[in-house]
Amino acid sequence: MYEYIKGSVAFVGPEYIVIENGGIGFQILTPNPFAFSKYEQQTVTVYVHQHVREDVLALYGFMSIEEKRLFEKLISVSGIGPKGALAVLASGEPHQVISAIEEEDEKFLIKFPGVGKKTARQMILDLKGKLADVVPEFFPNLFQPDGLEPTRAASADLEEALLALEALGYSAREIKRVSTKLKAEQLTTDQYIRKGLQLLLNG
């Protein structure tokens, strides 16, 4: 079992990144691949979870050990698979998810792709009161936009962000609704994704 992979960021796409280590390119699915854009061709440490099924062997990667632990807690819930857990973490506001679980706020939880009332209730039953070991006191400040400098045309960044939202499971109707508001912004791909997720979650 892998704990982390340290290597250079060789590729960043809407669904995954590629980390090159020892001449091998590891395809790693992440909540927000474009958060790694500013590290392309640089060495990074990615905390990974290896997911094994009969027909699938995949690596899921995260920027911090806390994010990885929360992911593992989420996929332990019946009805939430790795893709659903990534969509939850991609919001960039994990503390909101934790607060919703602790406060039994089903209305907030069902806003995530693939999370219905039954799954939201299961999340609360399985995880309420069990996340203290995952979340240090600084957790509310994790995964916030870090002021990345734009490196490409905003239209290209927006297009990539919309593809990333689609990969997370949001419908074309939902994406179209937020894209109109996003077009008025001048952001990086990572920031577009975070802003779009905030708009989707806030209804």
Automatic annotation (TrEMBL):
Signal peptide: none annotated. One of its GO terms (biological process) is DNA recombination. It is found in: Cytoplasm. Residues 72-91, 107-126 form the Helix-hairpin-helix DNA-binding motif class domain. It comes from the Bacteria. Keywords: ATP-binding, Cytoplasm, DNA damage, DNA recombination, DNA repair, DNA-binding, Helicase, Hydrolase, Nucleotide-binding. The keyword rRNA-binding does not apply. Residues 158-203 are annotated as: Domain III. GO terms for cellular component: cytoplasm; Holliday junction helicase complex; Holliday junction resolvase complex. InterPro entries: DNA_helicase_Holl-junc_RuvA_I, Hlx-hairpin-Hlx_DNA-bd_motif, NA-bd_OB-fold, RuvA, RuvA_2-like, RuvA_C, RuvA_C_sf. Pfam families: HHH_5 (PF14520), RuvA_C (PF07499), RuvA_N (PF01330). GO terms for molecular function: ATP binding; four-way junction DNA binding; four-way junction helicase activity. Homotetramer. Forms an RuvA(8)-RuvB(12)-Holliday junction (HJ) complex. HJ DNA is sandwiched between 2 RuvA tetramers; dsDNA enters through RuvA and exits via RuvB. An RuvB hexamer assembles on each DNA strand where it exits the tetramer. Each RuvB hexamer is contacted by two RuvA subunits (via domain III) on 2 adjacent RuvB subunits; this complex drives branch migration. In the full resolvosome a probable DNA-RuvA(4)-RuvB(12)-RuvC(2) complex forms which resolves the HJ. Belongs to the RuvA family. The RuvA-RuvB-RuvC complex processes Holliday junction (HJ) DNA during genetic recombination and DNA repair, while the RuvA-RuvB complex plays an important role in the rescue of blocked DNA replication forks via replication fork reversal (RFR). RuvA specifically binds to HJ cruciform DNA, conferring on it an open structure. The RuvB hexamer acts as an ATP-dependent pump, pulling dsDNA into and through the RuvAB complex. HJ branch migration allows RuvC to scan DNA until it finds its consensus sequence, where it cleaves and resolves the cruciform DNA. Has three domains with a flexible linker between the domains II and III and assumes an 'L' shape. Domain III is highly mobile and contacts RuvB. This is Holliday junction branch migration complex subunit RuvA. The lineage of its organism: Bacteria, Bacillati, Bacillota, Bacilli, Bacillales.
